[in-house]
Input
Amino acid sequence: MIIYFNRLPLNTSWGGGNQFLKSMIDYFTKKGHTVVHDLIPNIDWIFTIDPRPREQGVGINEIYNYKLINPNVKIFYRVNECDKRKNTHGMDELIRQMIIISDKVVFISDWLKDYFSNLGVNKESYVITNGCNHDHFYPADTPTLTNKIKLVTHHWSDHWLKGFDIYQKIDEYILNNPDCLFEFYYIGNHNNSYKPTSTNLISPACGKKLGELLRQFDVYVTASRWEPGGMHHIEAASCGLPILFHEEGGGINELASLHGEIFKDFQSFLYKFNLLTSDYKKYRDKINYNNLSSETCCEKFYNLICG
Output
């Protein structure tokens, strides 16, 4: 089978969609299928990652025109965006149009599926949550909590809705309470309005290097809002870190709730941090690593296309 992916994978620190793309291309190639990134003749499936036109891939108009000329081609659309995520306008409508012309549609969370259902999009669809590469993201052998617990988060995007309001409050709390039980680390790009003084900043990382970093920490926090699905909390949990997550996390909450605690503001964050760390092993033992793997994720997509 010839499968066209409408984005090129990037071998650098990037968002979760890029990590998914790399895993899918590798999975389908190992299964003996031909993966292409040009709209050549006789494509069997067009796998759409993003309907917007980009330098590294075509958008909805080119895909639609290709299907007009090649009516036998099937279109598979993985929906992983929405306007609510970044307070944008126009993305929801573009996604709706892409769903209309697609033969199979997958949302990356129930939250995202419900979001579009509330907008009147009720086409038959599936939900497949993200997974990460467990060759890079796996737990440390003997995790133990020290007197100074290492709290961490990581983001590729520097958008304010990634949770910088909470990260700023964590930073201020550490500054004003030097004897507090934790220290905070931020890996990745950060918003220009985020002005930390007590946070340990680490440059963006991905793959094996990121996994090695995450295994050095104890607890993961994400205050990101309205994520369609997210990858960062999956990478963290795969490294054995229980998750503290915001009640407005969107699709994040579906997996994070299985091995973490939810908070609504900074005060409840402190309470839930103490709750989680007082019974640390219980939360860590709840992590279902198979449920978080890219192998499991890709197999589900493969079965929908080839089953």
